[in-house]
Amino acid sequence: MNPFAGMDPTIEEYVKANGSTLFTEWAGEPARFFHLPGHPPFECFQVSINPPRAGRVAVFARSIDTNDGSELEESWEAPVQELSSLLVKATRAVQVWRNRLQQNLPPSDGDFYV
């Protein structure tokens, strides 16, 4: 059984609007996560969604790799019906992290849908 079935349309639409790829499995288990670009050459961020529990869902934003070695993570939890707003919060957190260094770094070529 797919624990994400009721949330998949929302997740899929959001990931597509952000030009990313939805990953649906990790270590042989159902999972939902996607990546967002940071600044070249190395930065990459991940947004992941936990399976719902008791009508609630948790969303995480985290750094996978950063140019300055920062390890960043933030999480949000709300009723499943608020999944869209949690995805927006996670994406906005990544945008803040992308802009945390006030250096003349070349911009990433991705805009985010919020």
Number of strands: 5
Supply the number of helical segments.
2
Strand content: 25-35%
Count of all domains? 1
Roughly how many Å is the radius of gyration? 14 Å
- In the predicted model, the low-confidence regions spanning at least 5 consecutive residues are none
Report the oligomer.
single chain
Q: Give the N-to-C terminal Cα separation.
A: 30 Å
| Backbone structural class | alpha+beta
Average pLDDT value? 90
Topology as a string of helices (H) and strands (E): HEEEEEH
Largest sheet at a glance? Answer: 5 strands, antiparallel
| Order of the strands making up the biggest sheet | 1-2-3-4-5
Q: Categorize the overall geometry.
A: globular
Q: Give the helix level as a range of percent.
A: 10-25%
Short summary:
The protein is built from 2 helices and 5 strands, in the order αβββββα. By secondary structure, the protein is of the alpha+beta class. The protein has one domain (8-97).
Describe it for me?
The chain is globular and about 40 Å long. It has a five-stranded antiparallel beta sheet, covered by helices on one side. It is built from two helices and five strands. The chain has one domain (8-97). Helix content is 23%, strand content 32%. By secondary structure, the protein is an alpha+beta fold. The chain has helices at residues 8-17, 83-98, and strands at residues 23-26, 29-37, 44-49, 56-65, 73-79.
Task: Jot down its keywords.
114 residues; alpha+beta; five-stranded antiparallel beta sheet; 32% strand
